[in-house]
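User: Please predict the structure of the protein below. I'd like the answer in structure-token form so I can feed it into my own downstream comparison script.

Assistant: Understood. Taking the following sequence of 416 residues as input:
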Amino acid sequence: MTAETRLEERFHGNRLLLKCLTLDRAQEMGFDPGELTSQDWELVWELAKTQALTPLLYYRNSESGIIESLPGEIGVSLRQNMLTSVKHKTHFSQALSDILAAFNRASLELVALKGSHLAELIYEDPALRVIGDIDLLVHERDLLACDACMLELGYGPSKRTWIQNEFTATHHHLPYYRKPGHPHVELHWTITKPETPPAIDLDGLWQRTRAVSIAGVQTRVLSTQDLILHICIHACYDNLFSDGIRSIVDLYQIIQSQKGEIDWGLLLEISARWRVNRCLYLMLHLTHQLAGAEVPKRVFRSLQPADMQDDIVLSAQNQLFSQVHGSRNFSRLVGTEGLIEKAGTIMGRVFLSPGEMYRKYDLEPGSPRLYWSYLRRIKELGLRYGGELVDALRSRADSGSTARNQRLLLDWLSAG
């Protein structure tokens, strides 16, 4: 099977998977899961596994009775995955409950982000939204107190250099907190990377948070409008559309389950203030086009940029379906003209400043290990991007398509 054929297969499979995950809307538009072939179901099953969507796939299709007639072991495997997700969610909820309760006792404000919010309050059952890590938003002024709280709970950070270095200037969350047998925890003080364009108004975001109960503990979550924007920003700027269709599924679930709660006018107002209209438009367009999400036409009319072209939507869709991860800096490299300019871009990303290297490799300032860390960085980047780098330097027309797609999308997103 050629690379092009495999890519076409992934596109076909992801489209079918989206229909199976948004079955009510898909059936309204004429989709019948009973017409899928055995080969189709094999592909849908494989793609659902790689994107942590098997519990939702089982749930959406269980009531129709089609699970019992699926080919091979797919039906049995889907049921087992659902049971596993239920067990995992019980363990996850206990870990989350312990952290929320500890922060409440210490009078530390926090906001449950992303998966914790979606699983507990947006999906029909918490087990339907698979979660890897616990993401929490805290005030930057409380970072040391939050760190002490996590250590008291038995979590240990992988790095401690943020305490003596200006970590918050170049990051948006602390290094992972780890505890054996527990999910990793990330403490954020903002919701996007500092190098990305969005101008997040943190004061307004905190003011709009709302009090809820999660895992049996009182805490806060983002407003529905801010949750939508966070999902869009994370998909567009942080992941460059390379994390598969789960962001589309999450956005669809928010829009369909919170119809009466979404203040579309306020959403447009916040989006304009944060300068993410293009990001919001593209994600809403994709979710409407691919999953049938019911977005008011006036929202599209308000958001659509004058320079909107089909190739932007196609590039984003290709990235979502192909799931090929790329690098923001590598994308810029592909768009750089000339060998000397490309080499300059490479040197700038390989040989970071000493301050950046100290932070990245957990070194004490002035450590002689700095020089060995540069060799380590060369090796790491070579292993990760070596093949693509050669293609980019040669400017081969048949290579680096992921980076070129991402460069096109980055340039377009930054233009507004």
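That's the full token string. Residues 392-399 have pLDDT under 50 and may be disordered.
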